[in-house]
Amino acid sequence: MCGILGILLADEDANVNQMLFDGLTVLQHRGQDAAGIVTSERGRLHLRKDNGLVKDVFQNHHMIDLQGSVGLGHCRYPTAGSSSCAEAQPLYTNFPHGICVAHNGNLTNAEELAEHCRKNLRRHINTDSDSEVLLNIFADSLIKKERKEGEDCDTVDIDTIFSAVETVMKLCKGGYAGMYLINGIALVGFRDPHGIRPIVMGSRKSQKASNGTALSDYLFASESVAVDTLGFELDRDLEPSEAIIITMDGKVHTRQCLPPAQIHHAPCIFEYVYFARPDSIMDGISVYESRLKMGEK
């Protein structure tokens, strides 16, 4: 169980660091082992992560360094790998583009996929974290599809990103939700084909406007409590097998990555029993109300 958060602001001159810190603080119940934030400032990535609580990992000088209008945050409860700070998230790979991942869940075939990455994809897996596998499979699929389509190094077609997420969902078994930050290109939220792990999307009107029309800021989070705390409106939960791509210019693209026959919504009951905060809403159900109902039985 982990807490994940991703925010993209329409104003490139704004900084997302304090919002990520505040959001992780209200998601701290989902993981107290380690915390991390990565931000992107006009193509330059800034990363800080370490073992400890959110309030201890990020001191003032760390926050000053975390400049940028888009970023990911993560608080970790280790269910795979070890408690080493090397496995704290977000995780990063430089090729292609510079991609970061923040992930909540477990891959049941992680060892098999790690071996696949080493032997077949020639990608080095440096930890026992299944999140590193999730990152490398996506990165490898993305670059192969880019080369096949003949895309240049500065742009990525939306269909190419969706195709890479589809590959991840076909190969990775288990319950997971997460976000990819493709540096300078897009923020991607995704949920496993069974909807086991939660992830919601929120938005708000930005102070920045284009041609007189207010632009929007966007957010992905494990729970709606982060959406509420940061002043966003809860749009909806991501559906099982769904990926949502938000490009740096604020355009939103959404797609079910697998056919209906391979999708079966089976959310984890323990989210309602004790993982989630009682003031969260998951898949349209109040966690607090669900606990009252369970107590009546």
Account of the protein in words:
This protein is α+β, with helices and mostly antiparallel strands. The chain is built from nine helices and 15 strands. The chain has helices at residues 17-26, 54-57, 60-65, 110-119, 130-149, 158-171, 224-229, 269-275, 287-296, and strands spanning 2-8, 34-41, 44-51, 70-76, 91-93, 99-107, 174-182, 186-191, 200-210, 213-221, 233-237, 242-247, 252-256, 281-282, 285-286. It is globular, with a radius of gyration of 18 Å. It starts with a strand and ends with a helix.
Q: Largest sheet, if any?
A: 7 strands, antiparallel
Report the strand count.
15
Strand residue percentage: 25-35%
Order of helices and strands: EHEEHHEEEHHHEEEEHEEEHEEH
Q: What topology, given as strand order, has the largest sheet?
A: 3-2-4-1-10-9-11
State the helicity in percent bands. 25-40%
Number of helices: 9
Mean pLDDT: 94
Structural class call reads alpha+beta
Uncertain parts: none
Radius of gyration: 18 Å
Shape: globular
End-to-end separation = 27 Å
Summary keywords:
alpha+beta; 6-stranded antiparallel beta sheet; 15 strands; single chain; 29% helix; globular; 297 residues; 33% strand
What topology emerges from the helices and strands here?
Elements: E1 2-8, H1 17-26, E2 34-41, E3 44-51, H2 54-57, H3 60-65, E4 70-76, E5 91-93, E6 99-107, H4 110-119, H5 130-149, H6 158-171, E7 174-182, E8 186-191, E9 200-210, E10 213-221, H7 224-229, E11 233-237, E12 242-247, E13 252-256, H8 269-275, E14 281-282, E15 285-286, H9 287-296
Antiparallel strand pairs: 1-4, 1-10, 2-3, 2-4, 5-6, 6-7, 7-8, 8-12, 9-10, 9-11, 12-13, 14-15
Helix pairs in contact: 4-5, 5-6
